[in-house]
Amino acid sequence: xxVHLIYDPIYLKHDTGxxxxxxxxxxxILHILDSDEELSKKLVRTEPRPAAHEDLAxxxxxxxxxxxxxxxxxxxxxxxxxxxISRDSYEVSRLAAGAAIVGVDLAMKRExxxxxxxxxxxxxxxxxxxxxxxxxxxxxxxxxxxxxxKYGIERVLIIDWDVHHGNGTQEIFWDDPTVxxxxxxxxxxxxxTGARDERGGGKGEGFTLNxxxxxxxxxxxxxxxxxxxxxxxxxxxxxDLIIISAGFDSRxxxxxxxxxxxxxxxxEMTKEVLRMAEKHGKGRVVGLLEGGYxxxxxxxxxxxxxxxLT
Length: 310
Prior knowledge:
By secondary structure, the chain is an alpha/beta fold. The chain has helices at residues 24-35, 37-42, 53-57, 62-70, 89-107, 139-151, 167-172, 219-236, 263-280, 298-309; strands spanning 3-6, 43-46, 114-117, 156-160, 179-186, 208-213, 241-246, 285-289. α9 (263-280) links the parallel β7 and β8. It is globular and about 50 Å long.
């Protein structure tokens, strides 16, 4: 089973200046991956394609898409207080969402491939109507809707282990029983959502599962909560496809987080995800880079995740 690393150097052109989410994040990951000869041999380097307008519009309002497209020409450098943009940000963000779509195409091949999209900007805070929290378009959500539209996938599970709650992903699928959103995250923390009683609404009630964790929760307790939640989800929502919003700012020592995971924990969580995917979804897993801001640690965390995927 092939593991595809989806990447394009254009992701470096989303110029955020002096900002936690900057191009050096990608450089630090590539440096570690290129130095791991054994892992590099197992990765199929794959180029993304831009998400089409209709792909974005399945998750985001037309006026939001237009606002991001036109923001730089209107002289804007920020979409909100945290979300910096540059001249190339719209095209780069389309390619980030497009990488997630390519990941779905690869996963849906007969042999059941796996993929990891090494992208920026991240996406899980982007809501139906607003770019926020470093995020422009919600790549995980775009990928889920694409999988349903093109391949008729009945049950998509989105797993989010970023230190921050993916409020955008939760909002997009709040009342949808065909996409299960599961998040472990530091709480209370930015963006203020993700309480345990946020479970979805309408027909989607019970298809959102939040595991809020206090800062400095021991990694063993964090890992057990993750595994127990997966078993619960599996018993009532066996997924046909799994998408991981893989934020590595939940690692101990990240500059924007207070959780305590180690690289080995990302490996173990990935193996638990694969166990479920192989049992129910022909091994189909698509990982997407979300957060992770300690440049000395980020590459090793991604390396652990990719090694487990192989």
